[in-house]
Amino acid sequence: MANDSLLFLILASLLLSGFFTKTSSAFSIEEAAIDDLRLAFKQNQLTSRQLVEFYLKRIRRLNPLLRGVIEVNPDALFLADKADLERKVNTPGSSGGLHGIPILLKDNIATKDKLNTTAGSYALLGSVVPRDAGVVMKLRKAGAIILGKSSLSEWSHFRSNGAPSGFCGRSGQGKNPYVLSADPCGSSSGSGISVAANMAAVSLGTETDGSILCPSSYNSVVGIKPTVGLTSRAGVIPIIPRQDTVGPLCRTVSDAVYVLDAIAGFDSNDAATGEAAKYIPNGGYRQFLNPLGLKGKRLGIVRDPFYNFGNESHLHRTFEHHFQTLRRQGAVLVDNLQISHVDTITSEQSGETLAMLLEFKPAINKYLEQLVASPVRSLEAVIAFNKKFSRLEKTKEYGQDLFEEAEFLSRNITNIEATLKKLVSTFRKLSKNGLEKLIKKHRLDALVAPSFSAVSAVLAIGQYPGISVPAGYDSGGVPFGICFGGLKGSEPKLIEIAYGFETATKVRSPPTFKP
């Protein structure tokens, strides 16, 4: 407490002296990457306070329209002043990559502060988490400023099949900043919306199947879906730990890699991180930001089902152009490949949805039970809450069919463990005989596919990583991305490929806010 009082007095003194307001007016924060911000800090052109003030102003102006942010951290400016002071006195770690950089977190990632962690639902409003999520601990250690919580498709899009992407009870319908009537995609929609619209420097999302890759694609940002276990899921409201993963959504590959470097690694509260830690390279991931990273890379193209949009379409022409760019940059494209049983993987025939329904209840109950305080302590209680307060949440029309089905199955399948064991065995066989066999047979470094396609299912059941990079805009101005996916631990190759593509194409442009 004494240290906090001393820090407050120092900050107050610096505020009165005008330390935090002295900056060059020449520096533009909008669209600035982390490297730009760090240089501006170093050259005294910018302070973290000014950076946070800029984003708070953007949120006040744009969020009533876009609904990408649920709430902002009331301590954000204090944390910014603290970061400025640490750089001023050269505190150890104050020159690190994320020090003083504001980040938005998807509202299923726990923070032990004044922010709520609710998965976008009133059912968890006022709940108290026991500690920061594992990734948040790492972000704080890196000096990042927790700016607030981004919106999401409520309960990570696992409440109802009828709910649209980007809708949650607490903030309403998230809007695509490029074309307001377009799909922002879920479930990490708010994270994509917010960084695309410059309401934060960087953001974090989560993916079970497509929830980072798809909103990255539709909001023209870069998203990294890490190998499951590479980043901790401790303190993250779960869907299924077997597939859940936490990753960045940012405006550039470089920014996303800065965030990945900060959050990847072992966490004693998530056993999966122990196994995945072997994949983390010495020296981290920034060393793979190679503008010539495409040279010599072997990329596989699976036309069916990932490119079924017609040979005369704008999408077809754009991707064929990108293939030519990849070749010019030194990549070897292996075309017209097939993934064994890909139709089974990308449809309900694989049993992925059934597995989610069976695994969700024990996962969510475990999370709810460990809360210090909560209005609900079980899936059954969440269902009852939603029924009672549906008017308050304004979600009555969307229902909660997935919740109810998960609860029903938990009571009516006699041997859930045996059923799950069989399903997981099927996923492993499909992955081993599918993407793994394809990559090994053709000596591929990665698969390349549209980010909005069903490739996410292939990556999801295999626990594989993927990176989505902006690839263009359709005739109506709606963004789409290109996805590079690989086997477990292939992030270094994927980063080289993604950064090489981004450097060669520079597709992304700021939002247009078309109606």
UniProtKB/TrEMBL annotation:
Q: Which residues are the signal sequence here?
A: 1-26
In terms of domain of life, where is this protein from?
Answer: Eukaryota
> Does the record bear Metal-binding in its keywords?
no
Q: Which SUPFAM superfamilies match?
A: Amidase signature (AS) enzymes
Provide the species name: Salix purpurea (Purple osier willow)
Q: Which UniProt keywords apply?
A: Signal
Q: What is the lineage of its organism?
A: Eukaryota, Viridiplantae, Streptophyta, Embryophyta, Tracheophyta
What region holds the Amidase domain?
51-494
Protein's UniProt name: Amidase domain-containing protein
PANTHER family with a match to the protein in the record: AMIDASE, AMIDASE DOMAIN-CONTAINING PROTEIN
